[in-house]
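BUG: 3D viewer hangs when loading the predicted structure for this chain

Environment: internal workstation, default settings.
Expected: structure renders.
Actual: progress bar stalls at 90%.

Input used:
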Amino acid sequence: MGYYSDVSLCLSKTGAARLREKLENTAPELKQEVEELLEYADSHTLDASSEAAFWWWSGIKWYSDFPDVGFMEAFMRELDEKDYYFLRIGEADDDTERLGCYLDNPFNMYLVRSIHFSGPEEIT
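Structure tokens produced before the viewer hung:
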């Protein structure tokens, strides 16, 4: 079983280049795990004009003690905040994580919180 989250990561051109560079200097086994994590994202997009990159995983076990996740979290800590934007929404209502400041990203990635309800005409 486990605890699942929805996770997204957006990297600027500089952030994406630094990820490629870091992966080239990583032990082969860990490099393969990280590449599989990135490859199996539910959505992955590269923006041709800005060279920014975006990944989104739905219902992933995002645990820091997993080697691939630990690698990505350590990598983000090394980046300048303007070069990435990371969002994680856990199963619990109050479990939301937001890191980085690449808010003006070409993917228009942002977190939305809202309240939904039925209007009086819908209640019978």
